Amino acid sequence: MRIVQVTDAHLYADPKAHSRTGIPLTQFSAVIDAVKAQHPDFVIVTGDISQDETATSYAHAVEQLTLLSCPWFWLPGNHDQLDLMEAEHPLLDEVDLDDWRMLLLNTQVPGQPYGELGPDKLGAMAKRLEADTRPTLIAMHHPPVEVGASWMDAIGLQDRAAFWQALTAYPHVKLIVFGHAHQAFAQSYAIDEGHVEVYGCPATSDQFMPRAKAFAVDEASRPGYRVIELDGAQWQTWIERVNL
């Protein structure tokens, strides 16, 4: 089974609006065209679909995503408006992936750039993990680990310690993918006697400079997406970049 992760489109209502390094809608369209060529079974969009928080920006995203020949799902980032997202396409908590399952976590804290789950969402996550022990992929917007860029780590998942503590009882959680950081990232996170693979993804819009102490755009990097191949209990994953 092939899953593709797309993230951080930062779209505007104006289709010709510029970001720091390009036109977000043009970049998003180019990434979706490239994703189509991968023939995925599912696509997950891990937040920050909109930059200007307008209904039209989400309509632009849906127009492109409906060109895919597979189901697609999205979850909110810190820039997103849940009501506008839900008006265009459902927000789901879980997706059945046959031998696997995918949990979609909402880490948004309204009005804040950082993320948090809180006791209620962590408890709900634990109940869902308790109920089904298939290999599990968790998708979220905010990084649950430090990515090595000081400014980004300050606005990642604030209750990451509680998140990882909640996962200690569920070794069937194998993979976590996140957005927000606008860069490729990979880490094997040790948890009790096992480990969880944690992956970040390039944005379809601007790329951020890895390991920067202060905010900086990586103008040498291109938009991209992550491919995840699930084969029984095994997997492999890689990043693809898109020429504009």
Automatic annotation (TrEMBL):
PANTHER family linked to this entry: CYCLIC NUCLEOTIDE PHOSPHODIESTERASE CBUA0032-RELATED, PHOSPHOHYDROLASE
Electron transport in keyword set: no
Stored InterPro entries: Calcineurin-like_PHP, CNP_phosphodiesterase-III, Metallo-depent_PP-like
Protein name: Metallophosphoesterase
Keywords: Hydrolase, Iron, Metal-binding
UniProt entry tagged with the keyword Coiled coil: no
Family classification: Belongs to the cyclic nucleotide phosphodiesterase class-III family.
Coiled-coil blocks: none
